[in-house]
Amino acid sequence: GHPEMARLLIEEGFNANAEDESGITPLHMAAARGNREIVQLFLNNNAKIDLADGFGRTALFQAVVNHHGPIVQLLIQRGANREKGNLHGWTPLHMA
Fold first, then answer.
1. Which of 56, 60, 61, 75 sees the fewest Cβ atoms within 10 Å?
2. Under CATH, which architecture does the 3-85 domain have?
3. How do the pLDDT tens digits run along the chain, 96 residues long?
4. Residue 22: strand, helix, or coil
5. Where are the ANK repeats (predicted)?
6. 2 φ, ψ to 5°?
7. Residue 40 CA from chain centroid, whole number
8. What is the domain partition of the chain in residue ranges?
9. Kind and range of the H or E element at 73?
């Protein structure tokens, strides 16, 4: 991701909670890619930290699955639900 582009889009009023056809949000993508700066930007602009995609995966779940420890730590510090499971009931801890 490109932090400056993300910042510009947010400033222009783009919705940080917009979902694609699978329920994936910009926060999910940034967490999955390990982009701390963009994750912080979205969280600072009202991104819903525990919003789940169509498979029940949250940003925290995505960060764990993709082995992005600093993002996991940031999301937990910002209040992410550690116990929220996916559609199969697997929590981020199951995926660690």
1. 56
2. Alpha Horseshoe (1.25)
3. 689 999 999 999 999 999 999 999 999 999 999 999 999 999 999 999 999 999 999 999 999 999 999 999 999 999 999 999 999 999 999 988
4. coil
5. 22-54, 55-87
6. -120, 105
7. 10
8. 3-85
9. helix 69-77
